[in-house]
Amino acid sequence: MSPRLVGERLTSRWVRLYSTGVTTDARAERIDEVASDVWEHQHDHAVRGIGKHVTSLQITSRLVCGIPADLSWRHSQVHTNPNSATGDSMFAQRLWSFTRLLIIFQGATLIILGGAMAIYQLIVMGVVTLGGLAIRHRYSAVGIAMICVASLFAASLFWFSFVLLTGMATLILTVITAPWDRLMSKGWSSEDFLERHRAAAVSESSS
Amino acid sequence: MRRKTGQLLSIEVQILQVAAEQRRVRDGEFYGFELAKLLADHDESRALTAHGTLYKALGRLHDGGLLEARWEDAETALAEGRPRRRLYSITGRGAQALATAVADRHQEQRASRRVGLEPS
Lengths: 207, 120
What we know:
The complex is a heterodimer of chains A (207) and B (120). With 207 residues, chain A is an all-alpha fold. Chain A has helices at residues 3-18, 24-47, 52-65, 67-78, 84-117, 120-135, 140-155, 161-177, 191-206. Chain A contains nine helices and no strands. Chain B is mostly helical and 120 residues long. Chain B has helices spanning 10-25, 32-42, 51-63, 74-79, 92-117; strands at residues 67-71, 86-90. In chain B, strands 1-2 form a two-stranded antiparallel ribbon. Chain A binds chain B through residues 11, 15, 29-30, 32-37, 39-41, 43-44, 58, 61-70, 72-73, and chain B through 31-34, 36-37, 47-56, 59, 71, 82-86.
């Protein structure tokens, strides 16, 4: 995949993900508007002779920095949709799949980079990331804490922008997908995030 | 922090300022990426505004009637070989809201300066 396509594809997937369950018109408008923005961004950089890597990085950076605003927009939009609970359930499943992929990507990147550059801290943090994901189902609090620590570490690698952005995105999404309302209760697991949304969908469809 | 009803956020004021400027210098219409560039030029140290932040703010201003929005003709976009742009322009209500926001800001600045000058 060309570097130019990485930022574009990531943005396209992210827009489709967070607009799941939003009214059809609002979703289509948001997808078209962001697609136009990304195209103009690439075109503008191509005309000015700016490298593809820089363009891809800038687009990814604009995506990551906008995640909280995107989710807040989504939150306000789903309340206008009569099928919001069903949409929310679907969104929760897709968001968790996306987050899990991002966590795996972060872990693998840190291990590969650490191996290639002989920096053992990177390898350790890569293992911590993947270990956190592996135990998240059984020991959620510890698993989430491990992923967050490793993501914070990745987000502090200012000399490697792509890892920094991945770390920021992983941190934000790990925190968002954590079932905070059940943090203190016994038997807390990653399934709860999905179950909570499924339960909301079921209760709405039965009422 | 929750904002007061009717109060504009800093990014919204900046967008309205750019929109008002666009109306002065040309036809007044602008699209998302162009706006991101204009905002970054306005404040040289700033990077391009994130997609989420930009389009959420534009949506709020549009819903509030402070900006008008329309999709450009598909034929125009096709002829230029690019996706359609969503074009925005400031409304009379938007210009009024901008004037009020700027006046409020000046008043706040004057008040804080006065407080700073008062002997302790």
